[in-house]
Design goal:
alpha+beta; 2 helices
C-alpha cells in the first residue's frame, strides 16, 4: 500500500513539475487581435455649439473616418457613417473644378 501511494505521489509531482515548466517556458505575448483588419487612431473632440463630446475614429488601413458621440438625454450612442478619406483628399484633380466651373490645369 505504501509503495502504491509513493508511486502515485511521484507521478503527481512529475505532472506538477511539467505543468510548472510549461507555464514559464512559453512566450508571454499579448495577442488580443492576431489577425486584425485595420489599425485605428481615436481622437477626442467637442461639437461646437453643444455640450456633447465626440470620438473621431480614423481607420488608417482602409482610409475611413467615422465618429461616435454619447447622448446623455437619450442614453444612446450616436454614430456617423464612415467617410472615405481617399475621396476627400483626392489629389488627382479628377473631381475638382475652379470657381468658374472649369477644370484646373494638370500638375
Amino acid at each position: 500500500m505504501k509503495r502504491r501511494m509513493l508511486s502515485v505521489l511521484i507521478i503527481l509531482n512529475v505532472l506538477l513539475m511539467v505543468s510548472l515548466t510549461y507555464r514559464f517556458m512559453r512566450s508571454n505575448d499579448a495577442v488580443a487581435q492576431v489577425h486584425r483588419p485595420s489599425d485605428y487612431i481615436l481622437i477626442p473632440g467637442e461639437v461646437s455649439g453643444g455640450s456633447t463630446a465626440v470620438v473621431y475614429m480614423v481607420d488608417t488601413t482602409n482610409g475611413w473616418l467615422g465618429a461616435m458621440a454619447y447622448d446623455d438625454s437619450r442614453n444612446a450612442l450616436d454614430t456617423m457613417p464612415a467617410i472615405d478619406l481617399s475621396r476627400v483628399f483626392d489629389t488627382s484633380g479628377s473631381g475638382r473644378t475652379t470657381p468658374n466651373g472649369t477644370k484646373p490645369p494638370a500638375r
